[in-house]
Amino acid sequence: MIEVKNLQKQFGKHQVLKGIDFTINPGEIYGFLGQNGAGKTTTMNILTGLTSYRQGDIVIDGLPLQGNIEKLQKVIGYLPEDPQFYPYMKGIEYLEYIGKISGYSRETIDKRNQELLHLVNLTEASNRKIGGYSRGMRQRLGLAVSVYNHPKILFLDEPSSALDPQGRRELLDIILGLKDENTTIFLSTHILSDVEKICDRIAILHEGTIHLEENLETLQEQYLQPVYEIQWEGDCSALKEPLLQESWVDKININKNHMTLYVHDRKKAQGKLLEVLSGFSLPIISLSLKRSSLEDIFVKVVNGK
Amino acid sequence: MKNFSAYFKKEILENLRTYRLLILIVAYILFGLMEPIMYRMLPMILESEGFDPAMLQMMDTSQQGLLRSYMANLSQIGLIVVTLTVMGTLAHELQRKYWILPRSKGGSATSLVFSKFLLYGSGLVVATLLGFMVNNFYGRVLFEYTGLETLGVIQSGLLFSLYFIFLLSLLFFLISIIQKGIPAVLLTLFVSFLVFPLLSNFNALQNFLPYGLIEESAKFFFDWPSLGPVLGSTLVLTALCLFGTVRRIKTMEIL
Questions:
Q1: Strands, DSSP E only, in A49-180?
Q2: For chain A, how far is it from start to end, CA to CA, in angstroms?
Q3: Residues of A whose CB is below 8 A from B17
Q4: B18 contacts in chain A (CB < 8 Å)
Q5: Would you kindly state where each structural domain of chain B is located, as residue ranges?
């Protein structure tokens, strides 16, 4: 659905994108992560035809972006990070304006406006001037505008950053609903828990290049830490010495009945751990392999660890 | 111009809510009213302050003189009011990024610029004609003037407003380049107050400067032999400014 090869962009002497490559499959939610200033918004602006680029090939929905921007804008939806609206307009008037610009008929505009206002939960506020909307309401109106044309591909730049927890949850539901309708979604966000909830694949953009691109599940599997958390029924300090005798054990931390066990070799530990632990007379309440959160992975990639 | 009517309706709505055009029209009418009153009051003011009433003879207190004085005020204070009032309409689109969402939906830069130009250009013609008519009517009432035909006043008003329309296109062009309202206003004023008067000293240029429309409007009739070149060059420069504005907005990088 989107193919980007060797994309480069320079602002003055600063090269923001140093040749990035990625492919997004139809119907996929692609999480685009990176620190502030990494070039996420620039990439989005390029892909939506709002900014030029120095070098590279971009193909969207089978068409090269260069020379087909107007055609592609009909199948693209874009929600900028901080969408700006005419403050004197009412929400419904703005949607009508977008409908007319998009070339829809009167009936289609009326119908679509109602659908979208309901979708983003702005029906009651639709007759209020946008100047009086909160940032979250403006964000939701922006989402309505971005999906006005039933886009095949939706670009969302930090869509949930201005929303409260309830609003965020609703937004994620809307995004998942759009995925169910086979919309391809390119999502840039720094709220990593959102990415974990909805993205199929992620890419981490750092210093102008993509440092990591992976399926989310595979990624979490790759970044499993060789650390076990074990909770015992009683004080487990006496178990430390015998466990340290095992060759695959690296280090043990104990806090009353809670043990953190670091291993050298996770595969070897998986085979031996249960056998060794069952040899102790102290019952185990729980045992888990510590998983890296996306935040841990992000920090590792960005710090080059 | 794709979906021009959508843009034009939006501009009308903007004006109904922000009162920009209304401010312009009211300002023009007020200036038009003030001029005859000042002319009427001036002898009394001078006398009460102990000035020699003979000083009044230096002023052109004819019907034409009254209108010319109005034009002089409009071309200075009026221009400041116009540029400051109108600058926001395009500057905010670019500076506050109102333009991004419509553009991402395939919005047309040509329709955006021309809808604003058509509305404010028409507004300027209406405001100028109303101001001229009010000034002329009030002058007749206060001084019992006769002689100047209404048609002459209208012709004068049209030429005068055309100069302002050119400055409007220049303002748009400068905003599209600088993307900020106030610096673009200052540059427009600089061109009108300093550059044009300086250039009009060169014989080769003076017949082609839009500034010449002010002199032409002071004649109160269409003097085609001298008006033709000024009119032609003004129309060409206006078109160039507008197309430059559209081109600049179309190729503008959104950061």
A1: 55-60, 63-64, 76-79, 153-157
A2: 32
A3: 88-89
A4: 88
A5: 4-250
* Closest Cβ–Cβ partner in B14, B103, B104 for A88: B14
Best mutation target among B96, B103, B105 (most A Cβ atoms within 10 Å) is B105
Q: Which domains does chain A have, with CATH numbers?
A: 2-221 (3.40.50.300), 226-289 (3.30.70.920)
Q: Which of B86, B113, B93 lies closest to B25, judged by CA?
A: B86
Determine the distance in angstroms separating the CA of A243 from the nearest CA of chain B, rounded to an integer: 57
How many CB contacts within 8 angstroms connect chain A with chain B?
Answer: 78
Residue A148: phi and psi, rounded to 5, are -55, -45
Q: Which of A84, A89, A148 sits opposite B96 (nearest CB)?
A: A84
- Interatomic CA distance for residues B64 and B148, integer angstroms: 7
Q: Indicate yes or no: CB of B10 within 8 angstroms of CB of A97.
A: yes
Dist CA A302 CA A280 (whole Å): 42
Q: What are the backbone dihedrals phi and psi of residue A255, each rounded to the nearest 5 degrees, phi first?
A: -135, 100
ipTM of the complex: 0.89
A239-246 contact pairs (CB < 8 A, 24+) = A239/A280, A239/A282, A242/A280, A243/A276, A246/A272, A246/A276
Angle at CA of residue A130, ends A184 and A39, nearest 5°: 40
Query: Token pair of B167, please?
Result: 């400055």
The answer to whether B97 and B32 are in contact (CB under 8 A) is no
* pLDDT one digit per residue (tens) for chain B, 255 residues: 668 999 999 999 999 999 999 999 999 999 999 888 888 888 788 778 777 767 767 777 788 888 899 999 999 999 999 999 999 999 999 999 999 999 998 889 999 999 999 999 999 999 999 999 999 888 888 887 776 888 999 999 999 999 999 999 999 999 999 999 999 999 999 999 999 999 988 888 888 999 999 999 999 999 888 899 999 999 999 999 999 999 999 988 877
DSSP-based three-state secondary structure for B94: helix
